[in-house]
Amino acid sequence: MIMVNKGEVEMIKNILQSWKSQWPTIHSTKPLAIDEGVIDQGAFNAIEVGELFDTVNQASTIAGQAVLYRSLTQPSASVVEIQAKQDAVKEIQENPAIRENLERIVANAATTENHLYVLLFGEFLGALGTARESKQIEGYGHRQYRRGMRFVEDLTGAIYASSNPESTYLQSIFNKINGFSKSRVHSLMIGPVYNTEKGFKTKEERKGVFTPATIFQPSVFKPLLILSLIVGVGILSQMVTYSIPGLSFSTGGISGAIFAPLLLAYFPIIGSYDRDNCIIPLRNEFKESEELGDALDALGQIDELLAFIKFSESFGSDMVLPTMVESEHHSINLKQAKNPVLGMRSDGYVGNDFVLENDKLVFITGPNSGGKTAFCKTVTQIQLLAQIGCYVPAELATMSVADKIIYQAPEISHLDDGEGRFGTELKRTRDIFLATTAKSFVVLDELSEGTTFEEKMESSGNVLDGFYRKGNNTLLITHNHQLVDVFINKREGVAKQVEFVNDAPSYRLIEGISRVSHADRVAKKIGFSKQDIDNYLADSK
Fold first, then answer.
1. What does pTM read for this prediction?
2. Higher pLDDT, 2 or 372
3. What angle do CA 348, 353, 354 make, to 5 degrees?
4. Given this model, what pLDDT does residue 521 score?
5. Rounded CA gap, 490 and 119, in Å?
């Protein structure tokens, strides 16, 4: 069983299965439903995981990029799994010989993996077709079959010749590829392949069996068959010469007359037979192989680990592998944390310290464009990177594993019929509330929009009280300082605000509650203040 049904979205065991019958794509997996995965589609969109992937992605192979993307869409909630990946990253970075070997394996695979994909998913054009795209197969597929098999043989051979790693995660990767090299599918790929009445058989499966079978050779030039034809034509010409007295043609002339049309028919007959009865059925079997899928996954996992290292080395400031802890309640401790996307190679990016342990509720307030949303995306992106085993941009990072990483942002373009903005948002908040636990990490970007102030206060208060009693860590981005006052006065939660210096944001997070919006400053910046409107109307008369 390769695919596991998980409600709305399928949890894929390997990338080959995620591609199914389509051409291999990097974005072949999706987040799981909110009650099934660590991150759902709403959070995926809100914290801009696509942009995060583009930043972290320094993988060389299609398999590596697909595995990295899958990690971000379906991150682990197991501290054991995360620590195992971190140990593998450390081993690669601390052992130059291992790193050099793995980089060589990945580099070679990057130049040849497409040969396998063309074989598995390519379009056959026929004998006279000319390939105009890399996805197309000219001729009968013999050449493409050989090239695809060479990729497989090179990968398994390189891993077999490698020294055994010490980390359990790297060992599991090597075991996948070595296990594939011992599989039936691998034997079929390397050959010989026996085509029998009961299907394809490997050399091992043919031991002690004497039933008729043809051996598939991935070439239209089959010496034994051609020799048999020559011998057969020679015998036939002799029979014609002796059976017709007085025939003046030489044996050679008769042989040529018979052999020439046979030769013309040979290529399309043999080529079409191999394609339709061997290559296509074999590739269908390969595509369904869990062992081959696991081997490609393993290649992708190696590439993903190398991408983590390359990302850390190219970021331009402090990067650490976070200390991951098991806890009944979500916690996070960051020192000089930077946004993984915006902080890339940005010397002037401002880092922030952030500690969230037993507070449960954190209110983020401040004027418009002060950095509230950017900070919350920074923290959630760091949490996500930590849960795929990657480096994070910080001087220090300690956090527990979140069973849910949730980010609710207003989605005005996705209103439910008849519900309006308030109802649509409330449904999303309800789903979040029901799915989360004390181990969850939740960010809410405003609450109860689209209703009156009085109803907003009541509804928001009820929702936050529910999250507080449930026990997870919840960050609320809000301009509603009156709501913040209510909870702070009850000693439930802490208040943070973005700092402004000389009417400009410093992008630092400090203690306190902001009671200003700086709306006029933003309006002036974009050219739509009261003065701008007055000037426009005056000029238009």
1. 0.87
2. 372
3. 135
4. 63
5. 66
